[in-house]
Amino acid sequence: MSSPADRVESAPVEDSVVIEDISEGDILLDAQGVKVHFPIKKGVIIDRTVGHVYAVDGIDLQIRRGETYGLVGESGCGKSTLGRALLQLEEMTEGSVFFGGVDLASLKGETLRKQRRHMQMVFQDPLGSLDPRQTVEQLLLEGMRAHGLTKGIDARARLIELLTAVGLPRTALSKYPHEFSGGQRQRVGIARALSVDPALIVADEPVSALDVSVQAQVINLLADLQEEFGLTFLVIAHDLAVVRHISDRVGVMYLGALVEEADADDLYAEPLHPYTRALMSAVPVPDPTIEDSRERILLSGDLPSPANPPAGCRFHTRCPWRQPERCDTERPELRVVQIDGVPASQRVACHYAEQIASGELQPHEVATVATDPSDQESDRDDSFFGPASVTEIG
Ligand SMILES: Nc1ncnc2c1ncn2[C@@H]1O[C@H](COP(=O)(O)OP(=O)(O)OP(=O)(O)O)[C@@H](O)[C@H]1O
Ligand code: SF4
Ligand SMILES: [Mg+2]
Predict the structure, then answer these.
(1) Where do the coiled-coil regions begin and end (predicted)?
(2) CA of 356 to the centre of ligand 2 (A)
(3) Looking at ligand 2, which atom is closest to the CA of residue 316?
(4) Which helix H or strand E contains 244, and what residues bound it?
(5) For position 290, what pLDDT does the model report?
(6) 287 versus 231: which is more confidently predicted?
(7) Lower CB count within 10 Å: N or C terminus of the chain?
(8) Is residue 317 within 6 Å of ligand 1 at its C-beta?
(9) Average pLDDT, the chain
(10) Closest Cα to atom 12, ligand 1: which residue?
(11) Half-sphere exposure of 209 toward its Cβ, with a 13 Å CA cutoff?
């Protein structure tokens, strides 16, 4: 787990990354204070910015070489936007991303293009991300050629090696994406990411479009590939169960920010943030005795709108442990907690994590209040703002 002292210093050191210089366990990617705010425009003739969607709103994240970092959270909390911002596929409003010590914002043109080879993405919908007019051979060769990786090698042997790595037969080379099942297509997507020999792969919901029966196979494939090729993964999912078995560390996101981050075993053994506890309590346990007796925390209401996030702790509108004043006004930082047996690597953004863990604070009811639909139809400039969907009374 990283401490501020581990962090890569902010000055750009080189203009390109030498991956071989970064040992396993060293920080490969270091994101600091990342914000992505999308402007909301309004107006028929002249567009004016009338607000922002605070999709990612202040995230520090370090990923070490050779680890799998699982990023989880509800739909719309900003996971994909963060993943894209880390790869410089989304413009950041604020913050910086260092990859192998190099400030990615300092890279331009050809240097940035070369750099992209080291950071690949696997998408949720392989059919949408693979050109339907290209055979698997063409799809795999495209990236390799663009980065000059076919020169002086037996390209066909390399393609067969890639297919073998992802568990597809060599006959797949002449096929088109639509000729495969969903799981096989995702294997093609993974082979394409692997084809340029990247150091980091961001897999955005890599199994959520697949049948449940195939999900485990693809997750196991990612785990095998990591071991075989020493890859580093950021795996994004809305389901804690999906990332559980492959993640070394897990970050839980809520409305544009991390609310908890820990080694996977620690997080699953003792989730500390009320939101993580609620997510975890929704994951079924195979043992029926444990399943029947364990604590369930039901979250009321939907995620509030990221265009109008609640003040203070963003989770306060849904939190069963919310305390007056402080929770509503002061935004909690991700911090090391003072709880016996909890390591410094488990950080939590909750003012009352210690009191909640000790039982000193007990959960209370959170009542939902239906929002007035007329609000949404009003002529006000801020009418597009989705009001926080739940409000606690009393
Ligand atoms: N280009 C964009 N312009 C405006 N708003 C955007 C844009 N991209 C994403 N958003 C908004 O930013 C917020 C975060 O979106 P994002 O896709 O990152 O969430 P997510 O956690 O990946 O959700 P999901 O689990 O559904 O994929 C959402 O409210 C979304 O509508
Ligand atoms: S800071 Fe308050 S509202 Fe936020 S999670 Fe902790 S107890 Fe709940
Ligand atoms: Mg997404």
Answers:
(1) none
(2) 9
(3) 3
(4) helix 240-244
(5) 63
(6) 231
(7) C
(8) no
(9) 85
(10) 55
(11) 18
For the chain, where are the E strands, in sequence order?
27-42, 48-64, 68-72, 94-99, 102-103, 119-122, 200-204, 232-237, 249-254, 257-263, 335-336, 347-348
Cβ burial of 358 (10 Å; 0-12, 13-18, 19+) is exposed
Q: How far is Cα 308 from Cα 301, in angstroms, rounded to an integer?
A: 15
pLDDT bin (cut points 50, 70, 90) of residue 188 is very high
> Among 36, 75, 81, which residue has the most ligand 1 atoms within 8 Å of its CB, making it the best to mutate?
81
**Residue 270 · residue 239 · CB < 8 Å:** no
Q: Are 31 and 95 in contact (CB under 8 A)?
A: yes
Distance of CA 40 to the CA centre of its chain: 23
- 85 alpha carbon to ligand 1 midpoint, in Å? 12
Determine phi and psi for 94, rounding to 5 degrees.
-155, 160
Determine if ligand 2 sits within 6 Å of the CB of residue 332.
yes
Nearest atom in ligand 2 to the alpha carbon of residue 328 is 3
- Parallel, antiparallel or unpaired: strands 232-237 and 68-72: parallel
CA of 288 to the centre of ligand 3 (A): 32
Q: Does any ligand 1 atom lie closer than 6 A to the CB of residue 84? A: no
Q: How many Å apart are CA 86 and CA 97, to the nearest integer?
A: 6
Task: Supply the pLDDT for residue 124.
Answer: 87
pLDDT by residue (tens digit) across 2-58? Answer: 444 444 444 344 456 777 788 888 999 999 999 999 999 888 778 888 899 999 999
Which distant-in-sequence residues (6+ apart) come within 8 Å of 179 by Cβ? none
Whose alpha carbon is nearest atom 10 of ligand 1? 55
- Ligand nearest the Cα of residue 204 is 3
∠ Cα 285 79 345 (to 5°): 65
Matching residue, tokens 């240097």 = 111
Q: 234 pairs with which residues across the strands?
A: 69, 202
User: Which of 174, 170, 172 lies closest to 185 in space, CA to CA?
Assistant: 172
Q: What is the pLDDT of residues 290-335, one digit of tens each?
A: 666 666 777 777 789 999 999 999 999 999 999 999 999 999 999 9
pLDDT at 299: 78
Tens-digit pLDDT profile for residues 268-295: 999 999 999 998 887 766 667 666 666 6
Is 306 a pocket residue for ligand 1 (Cβ < 6 Å)? yes
